[in-house]
Amino acid sequence: MSEGEISTLREVAAQAGVSRATASMALRGDVRIAVETRKRVKAAAEVVGYRADPVLAALSTRRWNRRNAANLAVCVDDEWLTRQSRRRPSWMEDCLDGMKETATQYGYTLTIVKWRRELMTWKDPDRVLQGRGVSGVLVLPFKRDGTKQLSLLNWDSYSVVEVGRVLSPFSWHRAGTDAFASMNLVCEKMLQMHISRVGLVQPLQAEERLRFESLGALAKEWYLSLDRKGLAMVNPCMPAVLDKESFLEWYFQEHPQVIVTATSGVLTWLSEAEVRVPDEVGVVLLNRDFSPHVNAAGVSQHLDEVGRAAIELMHGLVLRGQRGNVERRRELLIYPDWIDGDTLI
Question: Distance (Å, rounded) from C-alpha 277 to C-alpha 268?
Answer without folding.
Answer: 10
